[in-house]
Input
Amino acid sequence: MANEKVKLHGFWVSPFANRVKWALKLKGIEYEYMEEDVWNKSNLLIQLNPVYKKVPVLVHNGKVILESFLILEYIDETWNQNPLLLPQDPSQRALTRFWAKFAEEKIFEAAFNALCSHGDEQKKAVQLTMEAMEKIEGELKGKQQFFGGESIGYLDIILGWISYMLPVFEEVGSVQILDPVKFPATIAWSNRFLNHPVIKDTLPPKEKMLVYFQERRHIISCANLGWIKF
Amino acid sequence: MANEVVLLNFQPSPYATRVRIALAEKGVEYERKEEDVFNIKSELLLKMNPIHQKVPVLIHNQKPICESLIIVEYIDEVWNHHSPLLPSDLYQKAHARFWANFIDQKIFPIGSKLWTSPSDEAKKAAKELVENFKTLEQELGEKPYFGGDNFSFIDLALIAFSSFFHSFETLGNFSMEAECPKIVEWANRCLERESVSQSLFDKFQTHEAVLGIKKMLGLDS
Output
């Protein structure tokens, strides 16, 4: 599998693109990274992903793979050396996929809403995020180091944004979600994840993220209040 | 080892239909338990899918599997002796999953707005739905099935919603034959398969149910 051409199109702050970076690094796969400006999309990005025009895009020997979840599975199946990201047992694999889907739909979306909203709407978004996180907290109890066991796996990668991006959402949105009393297992997992050698060197700078998400919150708030029409 | 397969089912559900088609394609014997999803959910459903409390749930040797496409992939992996639903080529597999996800996000969630949203929103939804079918039609191209020569994952993901095509057209005020004839042709081809024709819920009964929901929401125009 050496010398195969692997290219990742990403955006510096995209948690979805970061997932793919982590998977490639964990597997020791050499790749070329192309930064895309998602607010000023290149013709190339539109050509590679005409349906959604989004990052990440993985190009492997000319073949285009889209959607972070699917790219992770593709990487795990194509480079099936250790560490294996997904369990081998079909029912365990189904359960892992289930939790990934749940987390994306119920935690990430709600947390992003909490970042961008105000007042009652924000309170509701925080509540929904925390309710969903309680389920994940339950899953983490009794786990060794990570969802994947001794080493980082698929679910750790999918949920990894919680460790470094959720605190930024909290600060920008002036909310608390990661309550240490309610989520001790999640916070412990988060610290282990952040300290992993592959993870800690691939995080976007916190200050830069704060500025970026402050701007996103402002723009989305203005749009919701009808001040800006896209 | 005993091979105990139970499906927690709701016959009109397109998501449960996907699983019924997959099980039929593989020739798996199973026990079907009908859930009354609008009234009282059974203890078994609440136990097997505590997070969402929804059907379909496949229970294989006492272990629950939830979410229709995850269940279909599971069925394909476990009963892998014939009728593969996903391609073995890894790139083609990613491609199939991509389009199944597109279908999950862009067909029923948009289409159901035709009977759950007020008229302005429903009109926008109709327009978007037609665009999405056209995108799918482009992906289908000249192939007999989305997977090529054989019925497979993407076909299964989409055909389950064909029971709703009549409702989409009627409430969305468009003709699928006019807007995306290849999709109509493809759907008819899929219906020739026993696994599909035996599993699909009747479109007129579906439409009755849809009109019932619209009325209940006070959206009768």
In short: Chain B has two domains: 5-78, 90-216. Residues 119-140 of chain B form the longest helix (22 residues). The two ends of chain B are 56 Å apart (CA to CA).
